[in-house]
Amino acid sequence: MSTLFRLLVAAFVCIAPTALFLGLWHGLQRMQNGELIERVAANQGVTVEDLVPGANPYTTREVDPTDQYVVPPDHDRRP
């Protein structure tokens, strides 16, 4: 009985995180492809391609190489 219980616990420990991750992945895919993005785009007055980065691979976005993140001098730095 002890061996069977240990095998069941081991199977649960191996399968449960995978099932939870796949559920999260499926939920994120539904949110990404759902009509929520279309409603937000319509509310903002833009197209879905403008709202979602990378939705239209044929548009070019200029990147300014001089834009850098600079930490302000009064930023709290911990030793």
Overview of this protein structure:
There is one protein chain. The protein is mainly α. The protein has a domain at 2-51. Helix content is 58%, strand content 0%. The protein has three helices and no strands.
Secondary structure topology:
Layout: H1 2-33, H2 35-44, H3 48-51
Can you tell me the residue ranges where pLDDT is under 50 for at least 5 consecutive residues? none
Oligomer: single chain
Q: On the 0-100 scale, what is the average pLDDT?
A: 77
Largest sheet: none
Given helix and strand content, the structural type is mainly alpha
Beta-sheet strand percentage? Answer: under 5%
By DSSP (H or I, 4+ residues per run), the number of helices equals: 3
From the spread of the alpha carbons, the general shape counts as: elongated
**Termini gap:** 54 Å
Estimated helix fraction: 55-70%
- What series of H and E elements makes up the topology? HHH
Please give the number of β-strands. Answer: 0
Radius of gyration, Cα only, in angstroms?
Answer: 23 Å
Task: Please sum up the structure shown.
The protein has 79 residues and is an all-alpha fold. Helices cover 58% and strands 0% of the residues. The protein has a domain of 50 residues.
Quick tags:
79 residues, 58% helix
